[in-house]
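ARCHIVE CARD
CATEGORY: sequence design from structure
SOURCE FIELD: tokenized fold
FIELD CONTENT:
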């Protein structure tokens, strides 16, 4: 089975304080962190045992995970498994980077976001340079807030052209951008106009639930991170496996079977 897995455990704390984010400067107790670690280690053990599969794993934590050593260890473990083609994570890139030396960097990828209010551009670019020196594949992104347009321009100018800089469109306010801003941001990220609109997905062909799944810390599988409970957000193509429910579990019993088992 070829699977792309989005994993999001319970970890929901962050060392940054972005104004638009509910996890800004949120802290967690020792017990909460220990629980997150146990969840991640169970997931990693499950993925390790799936030797007959071809896996891609993307960690999409609520908060910042790479400052926690258990995420660094999970990426080290996963990237060194022959049946894991890619292990990647979203990060604000505030962590130290020496741990990447133990990873198979052909399989490792970082999805790095620049937060201009939380780190200077110089320091962030220095981290990107270090990633390149250590042979890590990565992309750089930034939320396209109006007050950060000058920083976004400068970031693009300071990074090598082969480093893709994506701009995450701010869509919480309608008509947030002027046409001039859209043109400016499109020179930085040619895909910005596509990102800057909402896309209908209901009824469209989709790999979610078939070749792409989202796993939470409890081991529950949803068809995507945006589908929860039993309601599907889109319909798989006729050739895909159809699910009467979104949710399956990666409990030890399910982990030993070839196909995740619906719990109904
Ligand atoms: S770095 Fe990410 S998780 Fe942390 S406060 Fe900013 S947006 Fe939220």
């Amino acid at each position: 089975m070829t699977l792309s897995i989005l994993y999001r455990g319970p970890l929901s704390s962050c060392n940054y304080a972005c104004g638009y984010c509910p996890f800004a400067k949120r802290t967690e107790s020792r017990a909460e962190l220990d629980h997150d670690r146990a969840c991640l280690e169970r997931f990693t053990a499950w993925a390790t045992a799936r030797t007959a599969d071809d896996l891609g794993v993307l960690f999409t934590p609520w908060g910042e995970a790479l400052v926690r050593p258990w995420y660094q260890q999970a990426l080290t473990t996963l990237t060194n498994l022959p049946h894991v083609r890619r292990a990647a994570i979203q990060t604000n890139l505030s962590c130290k980077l020496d741990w990447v030396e133990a990873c198979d960097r052909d399989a490792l990828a970082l999805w790095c976001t620049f937060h201009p209010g939380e780190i200077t551009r110089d320091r962030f670019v220095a981290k990107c340079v270090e990633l390149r020196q250590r042979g890590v594949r990565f992309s750089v992104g930034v939320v396209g807030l109006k007050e950060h347009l000058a920083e976004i321009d400068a970031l693009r100018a300071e990074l090598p052209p082969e480093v893709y800089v994506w701009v995450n469109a701010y869509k919480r306010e309608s008509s947030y951008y002027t046409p001039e801003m859209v043109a400016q941001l499109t020179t930085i990220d040619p895909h910005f106009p596509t990102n800057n609109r909402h896309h209908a997905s209901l009824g469209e062909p989709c790999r979610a639930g078939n070749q792409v799944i989202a796993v939470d810390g409890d081991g529950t599988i949803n068809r995507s991170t945006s589908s929860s409970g039993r309601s599907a957000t889109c319909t798989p193509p006729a050739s895909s496996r159809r699910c009467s429910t979104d949710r399956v579990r990666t409990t030890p019993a399910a982990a030993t079977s070839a196909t995740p088992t619906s719990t109904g």
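CARD ANNOTATION: Residues 228-264 have pLDDT under 50 and may be disordered. The longest strand covers residues 84-91.
SHELF: design records, drawer C
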